[in-house]
Write a structure and sequence with these properties.
201 residues; mainly alpha; elongated; Homeodomain-like_sf; HTH_TetR; HTH-type_Tx_Regulator; DNA-binding
Amino acid sequence: MSDTRKKEIIMATLELAANKGLGNVSMNMIADKVGIKKPSLYNHFASKEELVEVMYQFLREEAKNTANIGAIDYTTIFAGKSALEILKMMVGGYFNINHQEHMMNFYKVIYSERSLNPMAAKIVAEETDKMMIATKQLFYAMEVHKLLHFTNPDMSAVSFAMTIHGLMDYELDQSNGKCSYETDNNLLDDYLKWFCEENAV
């Protein structure tokens, strides 16, 4: 399958899902939107589940490329930076990936259906797992470079990743709910400062 056709099918599915909900989108609807016959769509994707899984991987890679997130060289990243600057940079990179338009639309669809749709729940869980693994690697490196000290780096990473994830969910809920009350825009910054103080060397 050509990358152009793959992207066309993924974007058509994303648009339909954003408007109708993932559970209400059929392979017929996707084929019609792309302008191909249903059997041709099955030549590209064996099922809707496979299509959504490929969509997640594709959009995530596209977002990483756009945000210019590549392999991590901790020695270079850490050079001349405080622990707080490093955490702000890493969390900022994660936010940049997830706040790109296509990725945001995808998450709106997946998050709205994760309690009813096992495929959506699996993708959210996979994303959380990736974040926890990346955070553990970051914290081991910060410990080695004597930037922060953790009594239990694994549990610190889980706690940190889940808090960041929760703050992202909170921000998304505020945005989607068009909340009019005053919110603390510095909540993330305050958390990162507190975290660095709590785990100072």
